[in-house]
TrEMBL record:
Gene3D superfamilies: Flavocytochrome C3, Chain A. It comes from Shewanella saliphila. This is Cytochrome c-type protein NrfB-like domain-containing protein. Keywords: Signal. The keyword Zinc does not apply.
Length: 154
């Protein structure tokens, strides 16, 4: 093989690798949601990771938290999902139920039906991390988690 052919093949390989790495960067599954305009100020809350950050879902911060309206001016109607939220459980859960089908949730885990009207999804599920902690628990750990609210009185 001549030196020129060898250099051409080497150059083509380097170019291919560069293009593949650029495509991998562009296909980063968290790129869309983490470039949301909200992230300009809210980086301290961390980037959205895991399943909900997939570009295929086409989610933005407002998909769950609502439209910013006059935000950052006070008051605002942005939904906050936490134990100390002033929002009613039904209001919080309805945001989740715009995508998640109650029947499928019930088929996946019976506790979804039992808690649907009394406990916010965010009481057990964490949506911003790479993995939802509740999904990684063993049966024993889930039982221990239930004991946080269901302590047996003797």
């Amino acid at each position: 093989m001549s030196r020129i052919n060898w250099l051409l093949m080497l150059s083509a390989s380097v170019l291919s690798l560069a293009l593949m790495s650029q495509q991998a960067y562009c296909n980063d599954s968290t790129e869309q949601i983490n470039n949301d305009s909200c992230m300009k100020c809210h980086k301290r809350n961390g980037k959205m990771q895991g399943h909900h950050a997939l570009d295929e879902l086409n989610l933005s911060c407002s998909s769950c938290h609502g439209e910013k309206g006059n935000h950052p001016k006070k008051p605002n109607d942005l939904m906050v999902f936490s134990a100390d939220s002033d929002l009613a459980v039904a209001t919080q859960n309805n945001a989740c139920l715009t995508c998640h089908i109650p029947k499928k949730l019930a088929d996946t885990e019976w506790t979804h039906n039992v808690h649907a009207e009394k406990v916010a999804c965010s009481a057990c599920h964490q949506l911003h991390p790479q993995a939802d902690r509740i999904m990684t628990l063993t049966t024993k750990q889930r039982s221990d988690e239930c004991q946080r609210c269901h302590s047996v009185q003797r």
